[in-house]
Design goal:
Length: 307
């Protein structure tokens, strides 16, 4: 869904596509999660958004509710939930079933990480990121399955990241997201018999105000632009469209897959985040040969610039 020239929202999907559906979107109040929620609402869905920060979440729900058209079948509710906590996940599922009576779609978008070289990540920091991104996602899937989808079917989409070539400065979330991708393959196999599909959307470098505020000092969005084949960043609406496609009957035979939405950036082979201390590379010798290093390159440039 995107804003048209007239300022109205427009969607490529059929009006009312999710008219009879109920969805849970974790992290649905900000950034990518909010764009997914808006698109689902626009298509008639009833959505429960959940995240840790209650005030921002309820404000987002109020704003999105005010955008609903006259006579819309859509509705939105918000409930605070830390997906790391099993009892809070159970409460979220109970709340959704008590409020809307069913759960057709689950979007595991809630996640988080901090930027750090691997050597400086404490076990506490590591566990926090793994617990949110991997364990939290698993708990959501398991509870939705046990409480509703096992008997009624449904569709799950997890938001992951482009980490195919490793993820410098983000070893914790790279490992957790790789775990989510493999978890999805297993769940797709175990649950296909119950009419459930589970897929992932691997988001490339997507601009959102929330992400810009998180990584502001590193200015990552500007840094990575020269390496983007598209020469532009992705938008949250482009992720939302991929998610709605995978949730919809148009993707009825797609299961256990990961769809990259990255403008071909992962094919280009450059890292968004540079390897820490890369310019401090040590000389490499084998026998008598000595291969030039990046440090030689920098030193050479520095000595030439002095002339
Ligand atoms: N978004 C980021 N972290 C989260 C968490 N622990 N629970 C729910 N949503 C989140």
């Amino acid at each position: 869904m995107a804003a048209s020239a007239t300022g109205k929202v427009c969607s490529v999907f059929k009006s009312g596509l999710f008219r009879d559906s109920v969805a849970i979107v974790t992290g649905g109040g900000t950034g990518i999660g909010r764009a997914i929620t808006r698109e689902l609402l626009h298509l008639g869905c009833k959505v429960v958004i959940a995240s840790r920060k209650a005030e921002r979440l309820h404000q987002a729900a109020d704003e999105m509710r005010s955008e609903l058209g006259e006579g819309s079948t859509a509705d939105i509710k918000a409930i605070q939930c830390n997906i790391r906590e099993e009892d809070q996940v159970k409460t979220l599922i109970s709340y959704t079933l008590d409020t809307f009576g069913r759960i057709d779609c689950l979007v595991n978008n809630g996640g988080g990480q901090f930027m750090s070289p691997a050597k400086d990540i404490t076990t506490k920091g590591w566990n926090a990121v793994i617990n949110t991104n991997l364990t939290g996602t698993f708990q959501m899937c398991r509870e939705v399955y046990n409480r509703w989808m096992r008997d009624n079917g449904g569709s799950i989409v997890n938001i992951t990241v482009d980490n195919w070539n490793g993820f410098p400065q983000f070893v914790h979330t790279g490992a957790a997201r790789a775990g989510v991708v493999n978890m999805s393959k297993t769940l797709a196999l175990e649950w296909a018999k119950d009419g459930i599909r589970i897929n992932n959307v691997a988001a490339g470098t997507i601009y959102s105000e929330t992400a810009a505020a998180n990584y502001g000092e590193h200015n990552i969005f500007v840094q990575c632009l020269p390496d983007m084949p598209t020469k532009r960043l992705g938008t949250v609406e482009e992720i939302a469209a991929a998610v709605c496609f995978l949730l919809s009957p148009a993707a009825a035979f797609i299961n256990g897959e990961t769809l990259k939405v990255d403008g071909a950036a992962s094919l280009y082979g450059r890292q968004v985040f540079r390897i820490p201390d890369h310019e401090k590379s040590k000389p490499y010798t084998w026998g008598k040969s000595r291969a030039p290093t990046l440090k030689d390159y920098y030193d050479d440039k520095a000595s030439k610039s002095k002339l």
